[in-house]
Amino acid sequence: MSARTRSEERRAEIVRAALEVIAERGYRGASLAAVAERVGLTQQGLLHHFPTKEALLVAVLKERDQWDAVPDTSWRVDLLASLVEYNAMRPAIIQTFSALLGESVTEGHPAREYFTERYTRVRQSMVAVLRTEYGERLPNGLTPERTAPLLVAVMDGLQYQWLLDPGSVDMPGAFRDFLRLLGEPVD
Questions:
Q1: Integer Cα distance of 35 and 20 in angstroms
Q2: pTM for the complete prediction?
């Protein structure tokens, strides 16, 4: 195994550990020392791979996006329901993402720019999905541009409610109900 491959594997291990620590403690409560300890490194050893806590956070967020990566042209409205069902099977990932999102709304948070750009891309992607599915107007009369932020808000809002009280919130079922409101026939 080459040194480069070992380094890439170590970076991936560090990112996974950082994801766990952030899920447990939030970004502000997570320390580089805790991540380093989890992977059997000194803090200095971890800094060799990620020079700052912010650099590690960005790597965690990019890694998380890779897990959900689907080419924009492959999304359909019915597949969004499958994504919600998939998310219901991985609460730790959703908890970490939600915690970071919540923290990122504060001024100066290192993930603020990332989430701002991400939401711009996600809304644009949802506009394209809705336009492909419905054209310029959905059955409810709204345009794809007016509906996309609502769609994203429902997906994220359901995640927060589900994380707080999973026994009371059927995240996939509630999302299918929302699709019905859009005029989508749902099984």
A1: 9
A2: 0.74
